Structures are given as C-alpha cells and as structure tokens.
Amino acid sequence: MRVRLSWTSKQLTPRRTRVLLLLITLCAIALRVAALRFPSALTDEAFTFWRVCGPFGQLLDTLLSDAFLPLFYEITWLLTKAFGTDIAVLRLLPAVAGMAMPYAVYRLGRITGGRRVGIISAAVAAASAFLAFYARNAKMYSPGWLMLTLALGSLLFFAKSRAGTRSRRLALLTFMFFGASATAMHAVLCIPLAVSPLIAFAWARRTPTCSRRACTPFSPAQTTSMLAGYTWRSPVFKTTLLATLGTLAVMAGPAIYYSAINTWFQSAGGLSGRSETGPAQHDNGLMWIDNWQSDRSPLNITKQCLTAYAAGTESPADAEVQTDPLAERVRHATNAVLIAALVCAALAIGNAACRKRHGLTLAPAVSLLLLVGLPLYLFYLRSFRSLAAPWDLGWIAWTITLCAATAIFVGHPRWHRRMGRQFACAIAFVGITAVALTITWLSARYAYTHAPLDANGLPRWNPLWMPRYSGFVAPLLCVVLGSIIAGTPTMPLRLLIGCAVLGINLWVTLLSLHEETEISFQRLTQDVVAASRSNGPPVMMDWILLPHQLFLPSMPSPHYELVQAADLPGLTPLSFRTGQTWPYRPGLDVRRMVASLRYQPAMLLQSTAAKTKPDTIILWRNGHAATTDPPRVPGYHVADDQHFKVRAVWNWQLVFNYERIVLKRN
Predict the structure, then answer these.
(1) What is the pairing mode between strands 654-665 and 636-647?
(2) What percentage of the chain reaches a pLDDT higher than 90?
(3) Which whole-number Å values give the CA distances from 498 to 199, 352, 452, 621, in the listed order?
(4) If 653 and its partner were Cys, which of 218, 327, 372, 446 is the partner (CB 3.0–4.6 Å)?
C-alpha cells in the first residue's frame, strides 16, 4: 500500500536522503554531546545517582519500593561501573537516545508520508529544544521515547506489509521488543501503546477491492470498509488481532511488576497517594504536581504543553507576569512557533481544498493527529479530578474535528462529483473519533467512581499532567509538523515556516548550553572542599544567615557534587546514601563532611582578612549584592570576578543571581 501525496510526487532519491539523514544525525550528535557536563546535576539526576551508586542488589531493593521500572537504572548502573559516576556518564544513555531520535522519527515519517516528510520530520526532531533538553537529562524519558517511536514505526510497517512475508513477522517481533523496552523504562508509555490495536486497524493492508489511489488511512474507501465490517479471515482482522496480542504481551511486564513485585503502591500509596501501611497521605513523589498546576486553567495547561513541545519552553501560568527581557523574547519566539504551525496547517488545508488532482493530502497528518490526541486524552482524564467530556474540551476539539472533516471532504479527486459520498465519509470519520473518545471518557468515569475519595469527595488520585510525563507525543508531533510543512503550498512558504520552527528551536537549544539553569554546585563544592584542607583559602558566603544550611541537607544535588569533588577518606559514591529504600537520605560520611566543611559568613570578610591574612579569599555573594561593585578589602585586590545568572529552563525567567569573587593579597 502506497500513500499518494501531492508534495511527494517528486520524492527525494535514496542517495540524497541518506546524505541528508547523515547530516541531520551529525547535527543532533553535536547538540547532544556539547557541554554534556553542563549544568550541574539537577535534583532528579542526583536521585538517579543515589539509586545506582551502590551494589546491584541494593539497586533492585531500592526500586522495589520506588515508582520507576528498572531497565533504565540497570543500564545506567552498568555504565557507571564501567566509566565512573561523573555526571556525563549518568547522561550518556539519554544522550545516545537523543542522537538516534532523528532516525527513529525519519523512519516513522518515511512510512507515513514518504522520504521528504521523513527528512523534514527528522530535521525538526534534531533541532527540537524539548527533545534536546531531555537528551541531556539523566532520566528515563529520552530512551523511553526513542523505544516508543521505534515500536510505532515497526507497528506501521507490520500493518502495511503483505501477509506471510518474513519482513512482516520481523516487524511484529521488533514492535514487541521496542514496546517492551519502552514500558520497562517508564510505565506512562503504556498509555500510547494501549491504542496500538487502533493504529494497526487504521493502517492495515486492505483487500484488493480497495482502490490503490484511495487506499490511504481514513480515506473514504477505508471508512466505508470499517463501517461494513470484516470477516475473521480478512487481513485487517488478522493484523488487528496480532497487534492486540502483541500489545497485551508488552503491557503484561509492567502489570506483573507492579502487582506482584513492586511495593510502591502499598507503601507510598502509588498514584493515589494513600498508603495502605503508612500515613493517610504519604509523599509518593507526585504530591508537588497538584500545587504546581493549581493556578493554571485547562486552556493555559494546553498551551503550556504545546509551547513546550514546539519550542522547548513552557507558557507561563495565568497569574505570572514576565518582567525579564530574555524571558519575554523566548516567550514571543515560542508563540511565534505556534502561530507558524497554525498558519502552516491552514495553508496546507487550503492547498488540499484548491487542488483536485491528488489523493488525501493531509490523511497521514490527520491520522497521526488522531493517534496523538487519543493517548493525550487518556492522559488528561487520568490527570484531572474533574473529567471533561469530549464535547466539553472547547475550541481545540472542534478545530481538530473541522480540520479532519475538511481534509477528507475536499481532499479527494473529483470531490465535486462525489459530494454526497465524501460528506458521508467525513461524518463517519468524525463519528468514529467521537465514539472512541466517548468510550475513553466513560471508562475513566467508571474508574473514578470506584477510586478512594478524599475529604472533599474527590478521587484521591494525584494529577500527572506535566509536559515531560506526556512528552511521549513529542516525536509523533515532529512527524505531524513535518507532514504539514511539506504540505504547505509554494517553496517560499515552506522555507519560511520551516526556518521559523527550526531556527527558534536551535536558538533555545543553544541557549540551554550557555545559560546557567542550576546553581554551579560543581565550582562551589570544589572551593569549599579546597578550603577544608589545611592551608586552604577561606570561603566567605552571604547567601544565607546560617552558613551550615548552604548544602541543604534534604537536597541531593550539592551532596552529589561534594562526593564528586572531594578526594577525602571515606567519601566514596556508596557513602552518598543511607539504607536501601526511598526516600533519599544522605549517608553518614556525607553528613559528617557537610558538618566539617569550612566556610564563613560574608560579614566576617574584613575581620578574617585582618586576623589570618590568607593569600587568597573566595567570596560568593548573591541577590542585590551581586549587582554592585566588589567589596574593597585593605591589602587585597580583585583577581577574578565571575557573574552567574540562573534561569528557569522552562520559561527562562531569572530566578537567581550570584557572583564568585577571588581576592588576592597585594
């Protein structure tokens, strides 16, 4: 089965495709590898180190009471035993997954729309600031999304292949392998895999009675075939059955793990936050999401995710006020990407309406949009306590439905001669979508009815709606963007929209390689450890009134940097932790080291210089003091003055301003 598209009539040659794909992959490798140790370890990355720093048995015991599946941490544990525990090693597996993501997206785009769509989609994935950030984050997101994208590509190839061929059987096996690998890294990826039978049904190879010209997913001929039904001997039935069995086998692993092996649901309450053995409301690691999204409206949350996927930055909450110039520029650039994508989609639909001699121009994009929308709707229903029905989602649902109906209604050749049939098929398509969403909504209502309730009578389920948790749609959205950009009429418009999307994403990606998004605990820890040795330079700080709170005993990031920077007896990676189970607790050696470190309040700068007269004094100061001139100390001069501005990577607002000053004795 071959998809006929107006923009793929002159496809790229295989040789040119290989050259372009190689260049795109090299660009992705450069963006993922550059400054891999920058910034300092984030909190979640230090938690990753806490899990993998001990023996393998301790890792498994830790994960038994934790929320995550073991595959990512097992691979990371092997990498740390082979190459050490540096932050670059912890980020190595996500970086490799980020390097391979453009190829996976190309493979998916090649199957759905041809080589040209695949190359544009791969370029969008390589430049994507959202995918680039998580490819440099020591968590399971990037590897899990890669496995999911490869699984969906294998599933589409399986559905479109001729029955009985060796490649078809291999595609089914690779779908199960990649799907099992994805779900073994993150349980949330079971949500998009749950609609795999629907994907197989939509893309299954039809009987010869379906004309080749109209044999496009969700085309009128296929819609009519769906309504007519199939016998158990039909290729569509067999394809859907095999895909269903493969999906059940893939999802059996997480189901068995959480029901028979893992104790997180019993000890921490799981997704509900209600422990069976502990307190009524235990910290299961998800409690902060409810507070985070409490001041966001549904429309604002939707825009937040769209801007995150489109340009790597989240739209601010309704109550937030942007005052920082850089944050304002990033915000305007992000909105520009959204506008460009919407304009591009409108132009593509208009192109489909004006041109008569072509197949269903937007059929692959509309198909992927439906397969993206249904998992997101599942995730939405699971995340919010107030269930919104499909007809209550507002302008977004109506816009998607209108675009789908328009593409099907006007996208067929000689549509003016078959208006009645095209209109009926468009209504059937919208009806099938509405039925699928309604069944999903009713299933969620049934689950919420039987869920435990809190004091307000609402289901005791933690919300999950975060861009990184629903980020499994980001690679699919790259294919949607690639399909729509390729469908835009005229080459100048395609270049304009494509350059806007790629340029802004590259700008945000390069910005994340330059701007500090975390306090430089690497440099700070090295200074403090050097000061703790004999004859070390004193370190003065004005960050807080109580210097012993600098290393935040409950936070793992500075503890991790302390273990990496110190060359002191007893301070090894294994000393980073105490016990084998969650929650995180620093080891006894780390706590002793934090208590014995030498650093002093900045208010003692003058007296320290006058009494001890060290050769070098290191001063760390923050806030308004960092915007003034360095202090004048008699007998000393400023040898080095470094300013650091920490910005929130999600919206690029300035959140912390500090300075490192080195004073040398004259």
Answers:
(1) antiparallel
(2) 25
(3) 28, 19, 48, 44
(4) 327
